[in-house]
Automatic annotation (TrEMBL):
<dbReference type="InterPro" id="IPR023620">
    <property type="entry name" value="SmpB"/>
</dbReference>
<keyword id="KW-0694">RNA-binding</keyword>
<keyword id="KW-0963">Cytoplasm</keyword>
<dbReference type="InterPro" id="IPR000037">
    <property type="entry name" value="SsrA-bd_prot"/>
</dbReference>
<protein>
    <recommendedName>
        <fullName>SsrA-binding protein</fullName>
    </recommendedName>
</protein>
<feature type="compositionally biased region" description="Basic and acidic residues">
    <location>
        <begin position="130"/>
        <end position="151"/>
    </location>
</feature>
<feature type="region of interest" description="Disordered">
    <location>
        <begin position="125"/>
        <end position="151"/>
    </location>
</feature>
<dbReference type="Pfam" id="PF01668">
    <property type="entry name" value="SmpB"/>
</dbReference>
<comment type="similarity">
    <text>Belongs to the SmpB family.</text>
</comment>
<dbReference type="InterPro" id="IPR020081">
    <property type="entry name" value="SsrA-bd_prot_CS"/>
</dbReference>
<comment type="function">
    <text>Required for rescue of stalled ribosomes mediated by trans-translation. Binds to transfer-messenger RNA (tmRNA), required for stable association of tmRNA with ribosomes. tmRNA and SmpB together mimic tRNA shape, replacing the anticodon stem-loop with SmpB. tmRNA is encoded by the ssrA gene; the 2 termini fold to resemble tRNA(Ala) and it encodes a 'tag peptide', a short internal open reading frame. During trans-translation Ala-aminoacylated tmRNA acts like a tRNA, entering the A-site of stalled ribosomes, displacing the stalled mRNA.</text>
</comment>
Length: 151
């Protein structure tokens, strides 16, 4: 299996959305950004993905400035291009135009030294859906605990 080091993970994504299709996208980074990513200085808290002219961009993803950078250090929350196949972009754009669908970033990781982002096509959860998900998770945990005690 290939080496895959997760740098940042979006915990709120699975809580706020039903995650359907997942995709791997490359990140177009500049200068010192890759060094900050390798140091784990990435936040996906408010990040979202938008489409402009059949291209995908991630916005509001925070990459901290590189500690040993100079005056050419990168801007922290600049818009970064996602590297996806044309067919994948087209599929995601068509789904996003449907009501309730969006594309959310799930994680940023390093794969053979390259920065990649896992994104997912997602549908928003209502409050009662979140409660049901929590109940199912608690019930599953209780069942696992009971089975473990029986062994």
């Amino acid at each position: 299996m290939a080496e895959r080091k997760i740098v940042a993970y979006n915990r709120k994504a699975s809580h706020d959305y039903f995650l359907e299709d997942r995709f791997e996208a490359g990140l177009e980074l500049q200068g010192t950004e890759i060094k900050s990513v390798r140091n784990g200085k990435v936040q996906l808290k408010d990040a979202y993905i938008s489409f402009v002219n059949n291209e995908a961009f991630v916005k509001e993803m925070h990459i901290s400035p590189y500690t040993y950078g100079n005056r050419f250090n990168h801007e922290e929350t600049r818009i970064r291009k996602l590297l996806l196949h044309r067919d994948e972009i087209r599929k995601l754009q068509q789904k996003v135009q449907l009501k309730g669908y969006t594309v959310v970033p799930l994680s940023v990781y390093l794969h053979h030294g390259l920065a990649k982002m896992e994104i997912a096509l997602a549908k928003g959860k209502k409050l009662h859906d979140k409660r049901n998900s929590e109940k199912e998770r608690d019930a599953k945990r209780e069942i696992e605990k009971a089975v473990k005690q029986l062994r």
